[in-house]
């Protein structure tokens, strides 16, 4: 299979809302684009989840 030609960086503001994240990751799984993020983006996402009580700081 040929990889998707588009590279997309998913920032923390689209990784936190479940519905948006789910939609974008499903699109990536169906080869509409290649998904990328950084450790800093994941740290920001985790910080937002902890701050809003969605997950604990111990993971």
Describe this structure in words.
This protein has 59 residues and is mainly alpha-helical. It has one domain (7-51). 49% of the residues lie in helices and 10% in strands. It contains three helices and two strands. The protein has helices at 12-15, 18-29, 39-51, and strands at 7-9, 34-36. A two-stranded parallel ribbon has the order 1-2.
TL;DR?
The protein is mainly α. The protein has one domain (7-51). It has helices at residues 12-15, 18-29, 39-51, and strands at residues 7-9, 34-36.
Write the topology of this structure.
Blueprint: E1 7-9, H1 12-15, H2 18-29, E2 34-36, H3 39-51
Parallel strand pairs: 1-2
The total tally of domains equals 1
Helical segment tally? Answer: 3
Number of strands: 2
**Percent of residues in β-strands:** 5-15%
Low-confidence stretches: none
Mean pLDDT: 91
Elements, N to C (H/E) = EHHEH
- Report the radius of gyration as a whole number of Å: 13 Å
Q: Span between N and C termini?
A: 35 Å
Give the strand line-up of the largest sheet. 1-2
Global morphology: elongated
The biggest sheet amounts to: 2 strands, parallel
Helix content: 40-55%
Structural class assignment: mainly alpha
Which terms would index this structure?
two-stranded parallel ribbon, 10% strand, mainly alpha
């Amino acid at each position: 299979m040929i990889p998707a030609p588009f590279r997309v960086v998913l920032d923390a503001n689209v990784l936190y809302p479940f519905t948006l994240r789910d939609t974008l990751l499903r699109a990536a799984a169906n080869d509409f684009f290649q998904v990328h993020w950084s450790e800093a983006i994941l740290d920001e996402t985790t910080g937002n989840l902890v701050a809003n009580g969605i997950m604990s700081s111990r993971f």
